[in-house]
Amino acid sequence: MDGGDVSYASLVPYLFMFAIVALLLGILMFALITLSDLESDLVNPHDCAVRLNSLLLPEIVLQSMLCTFFMVTLSVTGTVTNLPLLVYNLRMFFSGKMELDVTEIFKQLPGEKRQRMVKLVMYMVAFVIVVFHLAEVALTAVAKEHGKDAVHHIVKEAVSSHVV
């Protein structure tokens, strides 16, 4: 960032991105817990398939929004790390391979868990990127409004206030 046109209003896209990544992580954790429940016989295959299939479209919409925000904010790292996953999910969704089949769910279970663990890693990377950019934009906005001494003071306080 060049710091020229940074204001507190420039935090808005990153706050939306933070909320989107949080929702994606929530959906993914729900899916992993549901698959674990199926594996432990705590939920029947039909309920598991219905629950997980109902989350496919919201996940794709949220991931599309996240990629769009990464592109709009010119985050090359965020775009490069999330666009391949979005393309993969769209291909799987439109080919009909993303939906869980009730009759085949136990055969699909190991692959589904592995796929969701990979997504978890990708969404955690997105979370780190968003938090980094959010902090960068916030500190740049503070520096623009209050000067570099204010940023130095904020960072110094953050570093010295570690919890023992």
TrEMBL record:
Chief location: membrane
InterPro entries per the UniProt record, alphabetical: Cornichon
Residue spans crossing the bilayer: 12-35, 60-88, 120-143
Lineage, highest ranks first: Eukaryota, Viridiplantae, Chlorophyta, Pseudoscourfieldiophyceae, Pseudoscourfieldiales
Subcellular location: Membrane
Keywords, alphabetical: Membrane, Transmembrane, Transmembrane helix
Highest taxon, organism lineage: Eukaryota
Protein name in the entry: Cornichon
Membrane topology: Multi-pass membrane protein
GO BP, sorted A to Z: vesicle-mediated transport
CC annotations in GO: membrane
Family: Belongs to the cornichon family.
Statement: the UniProt record of this protein carries the keyword Magnesium: no
